[in-house]
Give the backbone structure.
Amino acid sequence: MLETIQTILKTFSAGDLSAKALSFFKALGYASERQQPLDEKTFAGFAAYLNDEINFSEKNALVQDWRYVDLLFQLTESELNEQQVMFQGTGIDDRITSYLFFAIELTNDNYSRTALSQITREVNKVFPIPVMVLFKYGELLTLAIIDRQPHLRDEAKDVLRKVTLIKDIRVANPHRAHLEILEDLSLPKLSTKFNLSSFLDLHQAWQKVLDTKELNKRFFKELANWYFRAVDNVTFPADEEKDEAVRNATSVIRLITRLMFVWFLKEKGLVSEKLFDEKYLRTILNNTAQNQAEAGTLNDSTYYKAILQNLFFATLNSNMGERKFIAESSGGRNNQHFVHNVFRYQQAFKTPEATISELFAPIPFLNGGLFECLDKETD
């Protein structure tokens, strides 16, 4: 399913937003014949559809930014039953018996969590049933779900609680984490994990899947699994620490810490996405695990040596404008042999200078110890 979701996300780059959104939700298992698209797909059309005076803050909803809005469909229990969920009445609160799905395109390229949450809250104010909103802005999507619960004193009202977002899903190249979360939200996956006996159960299942604590727990579990696998499969040169187990554990933790910080920089746009794009890297490196025509001392450690070591030590630990490749050897040991902040493994790059200029030169210098090379010269 991950590949299907990724393929559909790419279609959002252009074309009819409603058609793309319907295909997207259908891939997740949510489809309905109860469709009543807006006649005019603007905020004015949205307001005309409501056809009444409403408790709606145009300021909070940022309606001046609404480029496009459409009511996609209403999903009911009967339709979910047709899709093999087989809801059964349980006597539990059954006020949530259907869901509305909206698509809204916004004019700017980026929006904060607060802004998207406010829009979601305002849209939910004017409907008696929950509304799921799919936002599009620039080349990003956000899926918004609100937690609605019955008012304790007024049964005719709901309390709008927390808005949960799957934010900034890139349509061209989505994170694997985003794809996995969307897959977990799919009806087939939820049906295997939760006992869905009512629409309220489905609503609560969505909340559980998107719960930040659960997502954090899952992340750290996967990170721990990777760590324990790695320490049994890596080899680091013997140095002052002679105990191999301690040496491997310390080095893997250091590598994880560095990579997580680099990923944070990448998300902030300070490190190029290309450094983590395997297909692209094959085009600039002479020798990778998949392309060993010129196999030599680098072989399948090319990525670690040519990309990560040069990123850590010669880039993040070196002043901008002063970065360069290690000097040519003039016989005997290179006079920059123990200079840590110079680029190495020039032979690994097809066009060394151009690659360094494009990928590494724009990255800022970090004046800290995280990317300090810990190699020490001894006798």
